[in-house]
Amino acid sequence: xxxxxxxxxxxxxxxxxxxxxxxxxxxxxxxxxxxxxxxxxxxxxxxxxxxxxxxxxxxxxxxxxxxxxxxxxxxxxxxxxxxxxxxxxxxxxxxxxxxxxxxxxxxxxxxxxxxxxxxxxxxxxxxxxxxxxxxxxxxxxxxxxxxxxxxxxxxxxxxxxxxxxxxxxxxxxxxxxxxxxxxxxxxxxxxxxxxxxxxxxxxxxxxxxxxxxxxxxxxxxxxxxxxxxxxxxxxxxxxxxxxxxxxxxxxxxxxxxxxxxxxxxxxxxxxxxxxxxxx
Amino acid sequence: xxxxxxxxxxxxxxxxxxxxxxxxxxxxxxxxxxxxxxxxxxxxxxxxxxxxxxxxxxxxxxxxxxxxxxxxxxxxxxxxxxxxxxxxxxxxxxxxxxxxxxxxxxxxxxxxxxxxxxxxxxxxxxxxxxxxxxxxxxxxxxxxxxxxxxxxxxxxxxxxxxxxxxxxxxxxxxxxxxxxxxxxxxxxxxxxxxxxxxxxxxxxxxxxxxxxxxxxxxxxxxxxxxxxxxxxxxxxxxxxxxxxxxxxxxxxxxxxxxxxxxxxxxxxxxxxxxxxxxx
Lengths: 279, 279
Hints:
- 2 copies of one chain form a homodimer.
- By secondary structure, chain A is of the alpha/beta class.
- Chain A has one domain (5-277): TIM Barrel (Alpha-Beta Barrel), CATH 3.20.20.150.
- In chain A, 43% of the residues lie in helices and 16% in strands.
- In chain A, the strands form 2 sheets. Chain A has an 8-stranded parallel beta barrel, surrounded by 6 helices. A two-stranded antiparallel ribbon of chain A has the order 8-9.
- In chain A, strand 1, helix 1 and strand 2 (34-38) form a beta-alpha-beta unit.
- In chain A, helix 2 crosses helix 3, helix 4 packs across helix 5 and helix 8 (191-197) runs parallel beside helix 9.
- Chain A is globular and about 50 Å long.
- The mean pLDDT of chain A is 95.
- Chain A binds chain B through residues 110, 115-117, 121, 148-150, 152-154, 157, 159-160, 162-163, 166, 186-190, 210, 212, 214, 216, 218, 228-231, and chain B through 110, 115-117, 121, 148-150, 152-154, 157, 159-160, 162-163, 166, 186-190, 210, 212, 214, 216, 218, 228-231.
């Protein structure tokens, strides 16, 4: 399978020291056709300004990160829950304005003070259900991202791709899909089968490598393609066989990568995409 | 469900600063009927001395840790593979001599220099198959332990309980079972179903808690029962429903726990077992 550079998307977190306009400029300079944006960086620029910047550059927005964190404290915090709901509604609106292929959902960990995984998972399902009408109205696909199980307690109780697929299948395919991120799911013996089950539901394919040893902040353990242990070819083949032919986003959280000048990082992203994914 | 203190086993790694004889003495002093041993500590004492020490104390050996690390470099390292095989044969022998309920297998990560998960998993299956005759001859049950997916690259490509069950089912039930360790599997949405599927195959139930934040050395992130986020009751209920009525081993790797005098640690282990698991 050949994957061309015309499918490369740069997630702006990979060039974390750059603002949105600089990230857009980097994509143009390096002939990268799509960008994954983060809401906080969009907010810095202003939504209208961000929309104008990506349009003027001719960039496609492959994803907006992120909605979610649905597992708020119980009914006693009605205000907190309402605020979270309103924020997610706003995120869907922003994704629509940006023309993003998906709004990535990081669903949230255990409810603070609770050990009840089932409760947290039910809250996630309910909250996604509440977002679906807004997503359908605005033509946005919500992308449920399974995070690595090491983040289950504090970031996402949706901890395997199979679980994300099960959840997505409860909702209309035009409104809810799944994100396949190699960093989070590469270890799973059932990965190929779960990707196949996600046929027609994959709304984003994100790539980066699993590098050892894990850093102290386990959020930052991602590496450039080829620097770690992930065998991308079978994952890419399964994602393609499941019908996904959209952009492939390189998203790297890594303090060492961030310490490198962004222009050099983007060159590495492009080179590695060609050499590691392209074959 | 009531779990009595007569089912408590102390894994000696929990009192890492104590030698084998001291760990045995701690069990006797705190009225703990069983102990999980480590091969390196058995070797310090000598196998015959270790057998004599646990027998004299009237202790049952709930597990011997560990065999495994089956994913050696390829055929070019025939000597390395032969040495690993011989070491695992010795581990089965030691487990038999000690009367251990199981020899815990930590199966090994990716083959050094390889990204091929399938290859590593096939090597694990083949190596277990080679051990089965020795296990049956000596009456030892091998316990495949699924490790947390964050250890997939470097310690165990068997990264979920379902995978361990699939693997175990290839072999006779008297020779191969699975270890359920809460630290490694608590996050899994399919846990209850996989434990049910493991009926008659559970050879060890190990418990400790998942404590945040993860320490720099992620091997040492375990906590006393109740100090973290794991909800033990549903796991214990599923393990019991699957027919396991053996010892429940408390195994904690944690530098802070190891800094406490072992006698105090064992008191905490006992108290928490009674309060957290006992209800």
